[in-house]
Amino acid sequence: MIHIFNTASKIIISILFALLFTHCQYPIPMNNESIFAQYAKPDRKDHHSFANPSEAITKHLDLDIKLDFEKKILTGIAKYNILNNNATEMIFDTRSMTIDKVILDDNDETIFSLGANNELLGQPLKVTIKKTTTKVSIYYKTSPDAPALQWLDPQQTADKKHPFLFSQGQAILTRSWIPCQDSPGIRITYDAKVEVPKDLLPVMSAENPFEKNDHGVYTFKMKQAIPPYLIAIAVGDLSFGSIGEQCGIYAEPSVLESAVYEFADTEKMLHAAEKLYGPYLWDRYDIIVLPPSFPFGGMENPRLTFATPTIIAGDRSLTSLVAHELAHSWSGNLVTNATWNDFWLNEGFTVYFERRIMEALYGADYANMLAMLGFQDLEADVEHIGHSHADTHLKLDLKGRDADDGMTDIAYEKGAYFLMSLEAQIGREKFDLFIKDYFSKHRFQTLTTDEFIVYLKEHLIEKYHLETDIEAWIYGPGIPEDCPVVVSDKFSKINNIITNKIKKGQLKIDDASVWTTHEWLHFIRHLPQDLNPETMAELEKIYGFSKSGNAEILAAWFELSIINGHYVKIKSEIKSFLTQVGRRKFLTPLYTALKEEGDMAFAKEIYTDARENYHAVSVQTMDKLLEI
Ligand code: BES
Ligand code: ZN
């Protein structure tokens, strides 16, 4: 009996060990010492943060803030629970903010100093702590020009009745509204208490309210640990519309109905994503549609994607952006780039994943068109940056530079095409298992490119004896020779039409009425750059591009028009687009084209009126471009 029991218990114990071992291999359970040691590794050094995580690390944030829309100031207390490696000083990142006092644990006021301002990074906040300190509370005020925050007057919103505020944290702007260890390699959970004027509703990258209450004080909880660049807030006259069990839309009342229609497939995308790469670990997935000055297409703030209204085209044709931000719930938010040099790990995976979601919902043809448009963007960017320039490497070196400099199609498209090339070699089934496993094993962790390569070699390259030249893709310039080629029948037809009809002066195309947005974009992008004014005017007359309700089509047409001179006839349309929309992806090519075509006067005329409507992120880029 005893013998049987022993054998049985041995078997059970070994099964338990085996389970425990396979389960715990990744994430590797770490004691505090190795957590601190990890931050001391040179490859993990974040050159975009002043923080000293090898000495003291933020773990949880209790945020208590009050918003003053009149003064455009946020006043608050950021109370952190920290992990302390017997440190006597803890360093936080800040930018253009006032620090009133710092309290250790519950009531011990301490000494602090703000270091010199660095134009790119802001100011280090150095707080004297004790080796036993476990809590640090920072009392602070933001400045009206905190670059993460855009305070909008009612006039700048859709409904023009109430003010609006939104934040943009990525890459290193959160430090301008919350003093924090602002590095993607540091994860914290957070709770927040937010006080706003009673007629406004605040929402965050957290568990959110669905409607306003009558006292204007709201509480939030983000129980999963996230890097500070994903802490986000938006406040406005917001309504909520459900689009499924797990998904919904926040928008100003007049925008809500069209947004609910446009994003109706979101929950299907979520299910397709889960089927591909494992469970969605953030509970709800909602989208907030922001005013048009939002400087990006979308921002993957966890549980609540921030989106530009310029993707509401009326025909659901620009929703790959939703698939993209949703995909970040795995690539980026679950598995995060350790530093901004590893940005491609976030974006390259996300673009690949985005197209897989779109393929699952709308078929391979659709996804191939997206991939081809992406490849065109990649080629243009490589040309623009320079074929042999180090900025065309996937792994970047942004030390001493703006973290934003990495936001090119290298990270997005070269990254995605690298993954496509791996998929092409081993087949979809094996590749999908690899990606799914990669997400699951590294969930809630951060990775450097080198750590990813070690993993990739072990689990893919060596396992399946692949011959991919990882060096060329990751540490080499331009587009590697084994880059996959994607084709689309629909796009080939358009190429033929341009060659055989348009170039011969036959501008009316019979079946153009059934073209989708992506076909139109391919068409406009491939029109000869030097079309004469008469032809441009005729195309305008037939297809009404300048009156399109689709912002992507408008932007592509306006750019071509500027390049070939047609724009003088549609100046008011261009001006009105550029004054209403603040999305940097549209502003940059249009202002660049005006500059290159030598019409700085028109560029400046628009910019003078538009600048105050743009978010700091766009202003910074445009000021540089237009040398303001
Ligand atoms: N995370 C990015 C936006 C971002 C990147 C903001 C770096 C600040 C610094 C977001 O997921 C994104 O990639 N947005 C794209 C849309 C996407 C469909 C390519 C955009 O805004 O254009
Ligand atoms: Zn992205």
Structure commentary:
The protein has 628 residues and is α+β, with helices and mostly antiparallel strands. Among the domains are: 146 residues, Neutral Protease, domain 2 (Orthogonal Bundle); 137 residues, Peptidase M1, leukotriene A4 hydrolase/aminopeptidase C-terminal domain (Serine Threonine Protein Phosphatase 5, Tetratricopeptide repeat), CATH 1.25.40.320. The chain has 19 helices and 21 strands. The strands form five sheets. It has a seven-stranded mixed β-sheet with strand order 5-4-8-2-1-11-13, with no helix packed on it. A five-stranded mixed β-sheet has the order 15-16-17-19-18. Strands 9-10-14-12 form a four-stranded antiparallel β-sheet, with no helix packed on it. Strand 6 and strand 7 form a beta hairpin. The protein is globular. The N terminus is likely disordered. Zinc ion (ZN) binds next to helix 6.
**Alpha-carbon distance between the termini?**
88 Å
Total strands: 21
How much helical structure, as a percent, in the residues?
25-40%
The spatial strand order of the largest sheet comes to 5-4-8-2-1-11-13
User: How many DSSP H or I helices?
Assistant: 19
Rg from alpha-carbon coordinates? 26 Å
Question: What average pLDDT do the residues reach?
Answer: 95
Q: Name the ligand types.
A: ligand BES, zinc ion
Q: Can you identify the CATH superfamily of the domain at 330-475?
A: Neutral Protease Domain 2
- Structural class computed from helices and strand pairing: alpha+beta
**CATH topology grouping of the domain at 330-475:** Neutral Protease, domain 2
CATH architecture grouping of the domain at 330-475: Orthogonal Bundle
How big a fraction of the residues is strand? Answer: 15-25%
Uncertain runs: 1-5, 17-26
Biggest sheet statistics: 7 strands, mixed
**So what's the overall shape?**
globular
